[in-house]
Amino acid sequence: MATQKLGAVAIGRNEGDRLKACLRSLVLLCAHVVYVDSGSSDDSVAFARDLGVSVVELDMETPFTAARARNAGYSALLAEVPSLDFVQFVDGDCKVAAGWIEAGVKALEEDPSLGLVTGWRSEMHPMASVYNAMFEADWHRPAGPIVTCGGDMMVRVEAFRRTGGFNPEVIAAEDDEFCLRLGKAGWRLERLPLPMTLHDADMKSFVSWWKRTTRNGHGFAQVGQMHPAHFRRERLRVWIYGLLLPLIFLLGLIVAPPVSLLVLAIYALSYLRTAHGLSRRGIGQAMALKQSFFLTISKVPNLLGMLIYHNRRSTGSDMQIIEYK
Fold it and tell me: Which of 8, 52, 192, 229 fits a disulfide with 88 by CB distance 3.0 to 4.6 angstroms?
């Protein structure tokens, strides 16, 4: 069986029923599954063990990161089954789609130059909130050769080993950083035109969205520092729309009110252009307008996350995760 060549690593913390759905989908498809828990207070660990899944409980005295959790799961998995060729990484709020495991393994077997394959992630309940709808819009990416992907991925063991796995110091966009090193090491990455996972964001509050968007900004800055060409456009837009234009607006209120009106016009134009782009992708007008509002103001929490990173870096502080759940 192809699945005998592959093991799976799921990571999570207090994911509840989402983790249960994740692990149930994996044990049906993979002979070897490891769950890495990061200090859950629910029954995640007990459920995983009852299901026959190997469990790694991270020492929470060391700052937790998703990268650290994935590395720990990989190490435990390969210690159990050193002969594995491939590892499927899955976030604990995702369920693996039927047919994906076989397709991913087949693609890696047929092309030795592939270090990683991924597929399409979809949101389970995209209309439950505007935040879920934004996740769904973001998951829609074209198939084919890619530079980076999200945390759900199938990786060749040899490629993982040669590149040293994930960087545990990276608290956000750690998957981007890992993929960039894979590519620089000469491995190809590809998104297959197949459903891979179903994601259950279950995001219903502005506060959760704000914290997650702050974390994204931290990722822009940290990974951008390590790989300057990556996230360059994102960082530039944050500096302009999150800092420069607000400062010009405030200064204009004091010395030149028409300048402040011009800044508001720039934001309005950006908002309308974003809404139009979303509508062209098939998103209904009302939802496109809602999503555009959040995307427009997202530069402020992005900026906060970037400033947190730069402060941590300058002071030598730990790169601790920014939790949003």
Answer: 8
